[in-house]
Design goal:
The complex is a heterodimer. By secondary structure, chain A is an alpha+beta fold. Chain A is built from 6 helices and 12 strands. The chains are: A alpha+beta, B alpha+beta. At the A-B interface, helix 4 of A face strand 4 and helix 1 of B.
Chain lengths: 277, 189
């Protein structure tokens, strides 16, 4: 008598059942004829600048899956703590989850110390975690915020190295954005000038890099307030159609008209109620 | 690179970090303080050397508190060597440890890739070092003064930065002696 396999209830924890199947699929890619799905990456332009009263962070809003735009308006500036925000480039899931994890840990730390968290703390937590994973977590971050020691800006690479600088750019559009910064950055700018500079840097990334596009998000962090400007600038609005290809009634003249009615009888009628509970 | 003189050490580094052909940071500070009078010059993978330096800074700070006196440069060098040798397969880090302590004065120790530890009066490291071995070997004389050492280091680094694509930016120098640390920056201007 054949043994029946009973469906086991999920015991919790990660189910490794699909790993064998995935490995087999990966090995047989050429036989299958189609490609494996790729990760959703955020081919991105993100940047940050330190100005007189604080930091300005900027990001584009395009998320790509290979050569197709997966999300036209995704949010790349993530919340870490009330005074610290982080832009993320690289694998979308990695940046999202990493920033959420550190945000959670930082909140617990802040409650334990009874103080506003410092940007250096967030930087340490992020770099130590990314180093532990030896670069397998593809998260390139621009971390900025204002704490008791003033405004700070860090760039954090997937392998866990960090740089503390007055202006940073990351992502596929970073070269275009850095060109704008290197030309126009000055120390101790005013807020409006800093916002304009970041906006222009992201715009350079959007228009010159294929992986970046759509709108520009800005986040201005000062000692007293945070302005999350989403969207700050809708640089790529969908065009309005100026003409119509439909022909008007009467364009084609009618010469003759012949009507043939089709006689149909109802054969069967059945009603199926939908479960709308 | 690092040079010993009577009464301290002179250390220097360039300031370029690259990701492939792009210069990620043109004003990097590769001279990292490990303790008040002990510095390390980092070369190789930035992530690896930053992580190692942070770990050693913590261990040395702890050790200094336990001892209740400034730790020895040799101790710092050994902590680096311990980590670099143990994880030699996973790491890519070439480190020069230099500093001043009361027992032996100015000392320079080199911990290249692989985790060897040796003390030398002059040490060079990094991708640009290959271009200046000749200059260093012919130009170095034992018993140079502090200013001679500064001049020598700046000259050597400039020559390396001229020839090596992965080196560039500004020349960062530091003098570590009994009186503390004095830092200099030499820009292109």
């Amino acid at each position: 008598m054949a043994t029946l396999s009973v469906c086991q209830p999920q015991l919790g924890g990660f189910s490794f059942e699909n790993c064998k199947r995935n490995a087999l699929l990966e090995a047989n890619v050429t036989n299958l004829g189609c490609g494996l799905p790729s990760f959703r990456k955020t081919g991105t332009t993100i940047c940050g600048v330190v100005y007189k009263d604080g930091v300005v962070l900027g990001a584009d809003t395009r998320a790509t899956e290979g050569m197709v735009v997966a999300d036209k308006n995704c949010s790349k500036i993530h919340y870490i703590s009330p005074n610290i925000y982080c832009c993320g480039a690289g694998t979308a899931a990695d940046t999202e989850m990493t920033t959420q994890l550190i945000s959670s840990n930082l909140e617990l730390h802040s409650l334990s110390t009874n103080r506003l968290p410092r940007v250096a703390t967030a930087n340490r937590m992020l770099k130590q975690m990314l180093f532990r994973y030896q670069g397998y977590i593809g998260a390139a971050l621009v971390l900025g915020g204002v704490d008791c020691n003033g405004p700070h800006l860090y760039s954090i690479y997937p392998h866990g190295s960090t740089d503390k600088l007055p202006y940073v750019t990351m992502g596929s559009g970073s070269l275009a954005a850095m060109a704008v910064f290197e030309d126009r950055y000055r120390p101790n700018m005013e807020e409006e000038e800093a916002k304009r500079l970041v906006r222009d840097a992201i715009a350079a990334g959007i228009f010159n890099d294929l992986g970046s596009g759509s709108n520009i998000d800005l986040c201005v962090i000062t000692k007293d307030r945070v302005d999350y400007l989403r969207p700050h600038d809708q640089a790529n609005q969908k065009g309005v159609r100026s003409g119509d290809y439909k022909y008007k009634h009467g364009t084609t003249g009618i010469l003759t008209k012949a009507v043939t009615p089709l006689l149909l009888d109802v054969v069967e009628e059945s009603v199926q109620t939908m479960d709308t509970s | 690179m690092a040079v010993e003189f009577d009464g301290g050490v002179v250390i220097g580094a360039d300031s370029r970090t690259t990701t492939g052909a792009y210069v990620a940071n043109r004003v990097t500070d590769k001279l990292t303080p490990i303790h008040h009078s002990i510095f390390c010059c980092r070369s190789g993978s930035a992530a690896d050397t930053q992580a190692i330096a942070d770990a050693v800074t913590y261990q040395l700070g702890f050790h200094g508190i336990e001892l209740n006196e400034p730790p020895l440069v040799q101790t710092a060098a050994n902590l680096f060597r311990e980590m670099c040798y143990r994880y030699r397969e996973e790491l890519m880090a070439g480190i020069i440890v230099a500093g001043w302590d009361r027992r032996r004065g100015g000392q320079v120790y080199t911990v290249p890739v692989g985790g060897m530890l040796t003390r030398q009066p002059v040490c060079v490291g990094g991708s640009g070092s290959s271009y200046i071995y000749g200059f260093v070997d012919s130009s170095y004389r034992a018993g140079m003064s502090k200013d001679d050492c500064l001049q020598f280091t700046a000259q050597a680094l400039s020559l390396a930065m001229e020839r090596d694509g992965s080196s560039g930016g500004v020349v960062r120098l530091a003098v570590i002696s009994e009186n503390g640390v004095e830092r200099h920056v030499i820009t292109g201007k």
